[in-house]
Amino acid sequence: MFRTRTRYITLIVGIAAAVALAATATGCGSESKASASTQPKMTHMSPGGTSDAANLRVALDNLLGEHAALAMNATNAGYSGLKSFPSIAAQLDKNSVALSKAIGSVYGNAAGNTFLNGKDMWRDHIKFFVDYTVALASHDNAGQKAAVANLGKYVSKFGAFLAGATGLPKAAVQNDLLAHVTELKQQLDLYAAGNYAAAAKTYDNAYQHMFMTGDLLAAAIAKQKHLS
Amino acid sequence: MKTFVAVAAVATAASAGIHFAVAPEHFHEWWGFGTFFVACGVAQLVWAAFPSSAVIGIGGNAALIALWAFSRTTGLPFGPEAGMPEAMGPLDVASVLLEGAAVVALVWNRVAASAQSIPFPHIQEENACFARARATSR
Question: Closest Cα of chain A to B123: distance in Å?
């Protein structure tokens, strides 16, 4: 009786373990909330037969382009004191989570988490921009300088992190990030000064620049992970 | 009768395996989700190992199906992306199908068991006749 019961429990635990292993091995985990909206699968072939490398490039380009657009929409709304700011900021954070999952799908969950929540990493750089926006709106020069200094730390530290992960030259990544940060700051400065035509032009440049960043990262990751 | 319970236990154990497999990615999303998936897996595994209560088996699996449906249509009201419906994936659909199979098997088992305990009409009639005969003979 006891032996039969032990065998039965062993069988049940074995079934659960086998299914868990099979599910892990297939790597087709449950879809996330973010993936429903903004996170294309980065390592699977698309139904149309597009290559993994192309999927990766499109995914990063889309997410980074969306990041720039939402970030500028958020800072403009924040500066103007619009009620739309919290909603745009929430959407921007969803984009950040989607980006971290994209990174996590390539380099593992721990790397994805560091990308998102590490000190002076992704979420921090958005916070620094919010700090800058608040300081700009309140004509707080010291606050603006502090926010810019923090953004400098972000460029340095986050650039080193991305370079270490992708194998790209650190200086190249940091220069690219510096261009991104500068464009976003410049766009807000122009918007705040009422120079809307120049702000719109800079907005477009900042958006387009993200596709360069996406291409740069995608090419490095594809080479590193031997994606075709 | 034991076959239905065995089917429910195996399906529930398989569903537990899926919950364990996806727990790490949910921990990455939010610790609360990860903990929930581990707790679900443990609860399902314990029930599958000791499937004595059909009510718990039916209720637990049905609750998980309902929660899944809610998360895919309305979105959970808490967590990092509260109110945002989740997309369906192959593993969560497989898990829900297994839970559904367990519920069906357990319900079927109960229906079959209760059907066997219902006396046939002609037996009831015969019993009534015997009762009348006994009463008359006194």
Answer: 37
Q: Please state the ipTM of this predicted complex.
A: 0.75
Using only C-alpha atoms, chain B has a radius of gyration, in whole angstroms, of 22
Interchain contact, A18 vs B17, CB within 8 Å:
yes
Which of A15, A18, A30 is opposite residue B91, by nearest beta carbon?
A30
Contacts of B16 in chain A (CB under 8 A): 16, 19
Secondary structure letter of residue B87 according to DSSP:
P
**Token reading at A36:** 């429903």
Task: Kindly report the backbone phi and psi dihedral angles of residue A108, in degrees, each rounded to the nearest multiple of 5, phi listed first.
Answer: 100, 160
Distance CA A1, CA A61 (A): 62
Element (H, E) at A27: none
Which pLDDT tens digit goes with each residue over A87-96? Answer: 999 999 999 9
Cα three-residue angle A11-A17-A22, rounded to 5 degrees: 125
User: Nearest by CB to A94, which of B18, B44, B81?
Assistant: B81
Mean pLDDT in each 10-residue stretch from start to end of chain B (138 residues)? 87 95 85 93 94 92 95 81 73 94 93 68 61 67
For chain A, say whether B77 makes contact (Cβ under 8 Å). Answer: no
